[in-house]
User: What shape does this take?
Amino acid sequence: MAEYKERKINVLKFVSVLAITILIFVAGILFGQFLTNVKSNSIKAVDQELLFELQDIQVQAQAAQDFPCGSSELFVLGSRIDDLGAKITNLENQLGKTDERIIALKRPYSLLLIQHYLLIKSRVERCGEKYTLVLFFYSNKPENIEAGERQGYILGYLANKYGYDNVKVYSLDGDLDVGAIDVLEERYGIKVYPTTVINDKVFVGFHDRDELERLFSW
Assistant: This one.
């Protein structure tokens, strides 16, 4: 009788453990699906923002032709673009640098950056404004990631230090196979990552904070 009770207890323990294991497994699946849905919704939201900003900058480009020096709206748009870039970076940290969904977002975002860069560059030249424009070319290939991330961090620090009224950094992923990036890389002879272009002057490889700061035009 005692042996029967012991066997019954062991069976109950086994069933309990099995039930708990199944519950944990199912909960894991449901939680994974929840996270996937959250990320999918985030990607859709960013994609819609990209479309709106692309359309907005195209309209502003037309308006700027008649009043290139009369509005600060381009600079306001730049801060919105930076916010959008932060959202893409956050998703990239979650999904990985090589995730196809991230690459699909970064391509139109790169076009947005380049369009804005060209508008600000034209404004600076036509209006005689003192402004530091930085093109930062990087690569996510394993051999280039560390130097690129260190350089990007320094440029981000300097941009925050001096503020958007004085400097704007445009970070471009050379691995994206985007024609507009290829054109800029050909223009500035980009063959090494990272490479930084400050007001049309090219600086190949990694450069420390003090060196880059001395290159700013104010």
In short: DSSP finds six helices and four strands in the chain. The chain has two domains: 1-129, 131-218. The first strand starts at residue 132 and ends at 138. The CA atoms of residues 151 and 206 lie 6 Å apart.
